[in-house]
C-alpha cells in the first residue's frame, strides 16, 4: 500500500486570494504528507519546510496560480523535481494521448494506485505512467525508503507499548515485547543517523 490515508478537500475554491494562504488547508488535505512521495512533513521541519506545488505549472498556466484545486502540499524534493514539467499544451489534459506520460493529481485515488512499496519501503511504479512520475519526481531517492521504514517502525512500537500497558499479559510475553521493541528502536536510531547524513550531504 502506497499510502494509508487518502487526501481530502477541506477548503473551498476562492477561499483565499493568494495561493500561499492555502498552505494550512493543504496540510490538512494531505494529512501532513507530501502529496507526491507521501513523506510526512515532520522529516522536513514541519509545515514551514513544505512547499506548495502548482499541479498544472504556473508557467504557462498563470491563470491557475491561485486556484485551490490546482495546488498540492509538496516537499522540496518533489516540487523542485517536477518544476514546470507538463506533457500537453492545455492545463485540463495532464496525461499524454498514449497514457504513458504525464501526471495524475495526487488528490485523486488513482494516483496511489500507480505505486506500491517494496518490502524495504522503496517506491515501485506499477505501470508506464507511474514510471514517468517516479522518474520525473525522483521517487527513487533513498530518503523515501528510509522515512517509510521509520514510520512503520514507529507504528509497531506504538502497538507494542499499548500491549505492554495491558495488565493481562505474562512476564514472559512482556519481556519478549520489550526485547523486540528495543531492537526496533535501535534500528530506527540507525536509520535516523543515515537519514541525517543524507540531509547534511544535500
SSE blueprint and pairings:
Layout: H1 23-29, E1 51-54, E2 71-74, H2 76-82, H3 109-112, E3 115-117, E4 123-125, H4 128-136, H5 142-164, H6 171-201
Antiparallel strand pairs: 1-2, 3-4
Helix pairs in contact: 5-6
Order of helices and strands: HEEHHEEHHH
**Helix proportion range:** 40-55%
**Strand percentage, roughly?**
5-15%
Distance between the termini: 29 Å
Could you say which structural class the secondary elements and strand pairing correspond to? Answer: mainly alpha
The overall average pLDDT, rounded, is: 94
| Sequence stretches where pLDDT stays below 50 over 5 or more residues | none
Q: What strand order characterises the main sheet? A: 1-2
Radius of gyration: 19 Å
Shape: elongated
Sheet with most strands: 2 strands, antiparallel
Tally the structural domains: 2
**What's the helix count?**
6
**Subunit organisation of the chains:** single chain
Q: Tally the beta strands.
A: 4
Amino acid at each position: 500500500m502506497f499510502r494509508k490515508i487518502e487526501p481530502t478537500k477541506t477548503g473551498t475554491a476562492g477561499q483565499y486570494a493568494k495561493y500561499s494562504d492555502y498552505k494550512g488547508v493543504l496540510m490538512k488535505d494531505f494529512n501532513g504528507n507530501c502529496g507526491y512521495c507521501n513523506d510526512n512533513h515532520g522529516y522536513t521541519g514541519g509545515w514551514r519546510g513544505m512547499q506548495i506545488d502548482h499541479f498544472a505549472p504556473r508557467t504557462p498556466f498563470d491563470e491557475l496560480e491561485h486556484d485551490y484545486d490546482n495546488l498540492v502540499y509538496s516537499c522540496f524534493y518533489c516540487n523542485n523535481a517536477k518544476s514546470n514539467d507538463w506533457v500537453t499544451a492545455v492545463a485540463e489534459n495532464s496525461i499524454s494521448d498514449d497514457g504513458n506520460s504525464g501526471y495524475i493529481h495526487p488528490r485523486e485515488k488513482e494516483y496511489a494506485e500507480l505505486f506500491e512499496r517494496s518490502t524495504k519501503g522503496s517506491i515501485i511504479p506499477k505501470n508506464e505512467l507511474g514510471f514517468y512520475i517516479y522518474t520525473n519526481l525522483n521517487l527513487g531517492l533513498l530518503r523515501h525508503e528510509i522515512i517509510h521504514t521509520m514510520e512503520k517502525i514507529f507504528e509497531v512500537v506504538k502497538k507494542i507499548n499499548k500491549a505492554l500497558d495491558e495488565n493481562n499479559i505474562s512476564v514472559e510475553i512482556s519481556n519478549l515485547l520489550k526485547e523486540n521493541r528495543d531492537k526496533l528502536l535501535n534500528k530506527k536510531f540507525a536509520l535516523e543517523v543515515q537519514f541525517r547524513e543524507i540531509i547534511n550531504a544535500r
